[in-house]
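Dear support,

Our group has been running a series of protein-ligand predictions, and this particular one with flavin mononucleotide is the one our PI (initials K.S.) wants archived with full inputs and outputs. We had some confusion internally about which version of the output was final, so please treat the block below as the authoritative record. The input we submitted was:
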Amino acid sequence: MDAYKAIVTKRDTRAYTNQPIPDEMLQRILQAGRMAGSSKNTQPVRLVVIRDREWLKEVAECGKFSQPLLGAQVGIAVCCAPDGSDFDAGRAAQNMMVAAWNEGIATCPTSVHDQPCIIEKLGLPRGGEDPVTGRKGWRVVVIIALGYPEPSVPMSMGRERMRIDDYVHWERWVGR
Ligand SMILES: Cc1cc2nc3c(=O)[nH]c(=O)nc-3n(C[C@H](O)[C@H](O)[C@H](O)COP(=O)(O)O)c2cc1C
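Confirmed final output from the archive:
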């Protein structure tokens, strides 16, 4: 699949088959996240990969709309340092989701509404224990659910995008 096709055909898919994701494919997906740029190359993003599906169900309890994680083969928690932005985390997340789709693996980002819950469950550093940078106060921005798409369930909820003319403004938002 070429890059443009992978980007424009990717949909946030919530139902997966029981087919496992091969390790080498998962490694490629993780590399795609690692290669995302960040502001001043501060590299504020870390990943916690959850392959234990029972554990993933427990982790899912920290979000209100985490149903995609319940049937996923793998979850990837996208963690961010306090001095990092959600934009940095989003770049890594989208890189991984597009790379996954290029391999035929569907994904859905899921929100984490209870940060104390996820920090506790995933053991994020609280007091400067991050061995690389000593940063404190990590958060989880999203957890990505991954799996091969279940063919009997629609790939997405079919939500449409706004018209391109409403989305894009040229030179200035409001015309002179
Ligand atoms: C930051 C973020 C958080 C999201 N959280 C959830 C979530 O908790 N549960 C869920 O089912 N989908 C979640 N989504 C997926 C959105 O619902 C999805 O991107 C949107 O409906 C468009 O889907 P489509 O690409 O299939 O059209 C999230 C998406 C983003 C970008």
